Amino acid sequence: MDAWAPTAYTAESYDGVRQTAAYRGDLHVLVEAPDGTMASSTIMWLDEVNKTVEFEPVGTHPGYRRLGLGRAMLLHGMQLAREAGANHATVACLGAPAHVRARELYYGVGFRELSRDAPLIKTAK
Which pLDDT does position 43 carry in this prediction? Predict the structure, then answer.
């Protein structure tokens, strides 16, 4: 969970995610450090009809960043997604301008920018 700190994501939230109909354990990649720390993780959500997969969330524990784990995990995940039938992949880098390293990681494994975050505002009546 440290990969996304601070976060409201809990073990109970994770259990809820795993109970959703779209969750597939074979498309969930966890990289565990020798000491048992969850070093890096991603869940891939497969849309079988459109043959696309979305990586969400993607995260690496701060103590294990810049070691190539995120890159290896994404490349392995793309292979798993291909084997599951996907021929297209997406990843959301929320707040991309402020997350330069994450953006560089995604570009480094072949993703390209499709769109930018667009704030939505509703005015009071």
Answer: 94
Give 45's strand partners: 54
Return the beta strands (E) in 62-110 as ranges.
88-91
* Tokens representing residue 69 in the block: 């784990």
H or E stretch covering 54: strand 52-60
Q: What residues contact 18, with CB distance under 8 A and at least 6 apart?
A: 25
Q: How far is CA 104 from CA 71, 87, 107, 117, in A?
A: 10, 22, 5, 17
Question: Do residues 58 and 74 lie in contact, with contact meaning Cβ atoms separated by under 8 Å?
Answer: yes
What are the structure tokens assigned to 106, written together?
Answer: 């995604």
> Each residue of 60-97: pLDDT tens digit?
999 999 999 999 999 999 999 999 999 999 998 776 56
